[in-house]
Design goal:
The protein is an all-alpha fold. The chain is 71% helix and 0% strand. It contains 16 helices and no strands.
């Protein structure tokens, strides 16, 4: 066998792939979507005078001290810790409570189950601005005002998480549960040892979506929290803006720092999104 014949599969594997005409549409859209992100990074390494220049342009140098100034002038590390605590707690709560509720709606038939599930879905159509005041009243009634608990407790379970997991529970064959029931397994054991291991991509998708929503939330922390020691990072960045002037490079540097966990989580969990969609399509 000649050397050219042996290298033929490798050549086919690394052959240049002709771009699709669809790329002509996707490339401009990608540039538009990444333009604000790139501009935020450029402003974070600019001087204050360059940030106010019109028309805007590229910075003349890299001002790394904007990042150290942002960490020094405000308790940014403490705010990041608060955001991490709130986000991780909400992720754990959604994975546990939404799994229990989704499994109950998918597999257990009880009086009013369908009506209750429709009521849960109906809450998805209600804007948060409508339920914001009743939620604040209930949080104040249990004594959680101006605490991290006020940010965690209302977000421990969501209607979207219940709906998402319920739909995936419906796609799992009932024969797996029946075999476990014959072996003497209880409902909870079937849920945690049979069903949930089959839904790891879906659970990862719910975890990432919950983390992103909680981490980037601004409106609810603005209402429920007043003390600086209980602020999340998104709320704390508001303090970088003054009444008459704003140091935009320092504010953009703090914003870049606050978004680093989001970027890392997105790139790590990107494959779970693809696997979750592919699994749903195959089923």
């Amino acid at each position: 066998m000649s050397m050219s014949t042996m290298n033929a599969p490798a050549a086919r594997r690394f052959r240049f792939r002709r771009p699709s005409p669809l790329h002509l549409i996707l490339l401009p859209i990608a540039l538009v979507m990444t333009a604000p992100l790139l501009w935020m990074v450029l402003l974070s390494v600019s001087t204050e005078a360059e940030s106010r220049r019109f028309p805007p342009g590229l910075p003349s140098g890299i001002e790394w001290h904007n990042y150290t100034d942002a960490l020094r002038d405000a308790p940014l590390g403490h705010w990041l810790g608060n955001s991490a605590l709130v986000s991780v707690s909400c992720v754990i709560g959604n994975l546990v409570f939404c799994s229990l509720a989704g499994y109950a709606f998918a597999r257990i038939r009880f009086l009013g189950s369908r009506a209750l599930f429709v009521a849960v879905l109906a809450t998805l159509m209600v804007p948060f601005q409508i339920v914001m005041l009743p939620t604040l009243i209930m949080v104040r009634a249990v004594g959680l005002t101006d605490t991290l608990g006020a940010l965690i407790v209302p977000n421990l379970a969501t209607a979207f998480g219940i709906f998402l997991l319920r739909q995936f529970f419906m796609t799992v064959p009932r024969e797996l549960e029946e075999a476990a029931r014959i072996d003497g397994a209880s409902r909870l054991r079937i849920l945690f040892q049979v069903m949930l291991p089959l839904m790891r991509p879906t659970l990862a998708t719910l975890a990432v979506l919950t983390f992103l929503q909680t981490w980037n939330d601004f409106l609810w922390p603005l209402i429920a929290v007043q003390s600086p020691e209980h602020m999340t990072v998104q709320l704390g960045l508001q303090t970088f803006q003054g009444a008459h002037t704003t140091n935009w490079p320092r504010l953009m540097a703090g914003t870049v720092i606050s978004q680093l966990p989001v970027f890392v989580l997105f790139f790590v969990a990107q494959r779970f999104f693809v696997r979750s969609v592919a699994t749903a399509g195959l089923k």
